[in-house]
Amino acid sequence: DAMRQAFDSVRISGTVVIGEGEIDEAPMLYIGEHVGAGGPEVDIAVDPIEGTNLIAKGQNGAIAVMAIAEKGGLLH
């Protein structure tokens, strides 16, 4: 939820091109989802959490990653 909220506060018109899966496989940040508050068109790649077991146990070491490029700039 935090990554989605952050995207929606940024002045971009983003499309998730590499995400958590197809629309019927992921609740948010799915491939094809539009994010942002409007602005330049960009492509987005996301992996909100690597280390879900660490998060569940309240431990350090989990990571979230994203990449943003001009529209058409990410291979998928």
Automatic annotation (TrEMBL):
Please tell me whether the keyword Manganese is annotated for this protein: yes
Taken from the UniProt entry, a GO cellular component term is:
cytosol
- KW Amino-acid biosynthesis (keyword) present: no
A GO BP entry is: glycerol metabolic process
Spell out the Pfam families in the cross-references.
FBPase_glpX
Name the InterPro entries for this protein: FBPase_class-2/SBPase
Give the matching PANTHER family.
FRUCTOSE-1,6-BISPHOSPHATASE 1 CLASS 2-RELATED, FRUCTOSE-1,6-BISPHOSPHATASE CLASS 2
What's the protein called, per UniProt? Fructose-1,6-bisphosphatase
- Record the organism: human gut metagenome
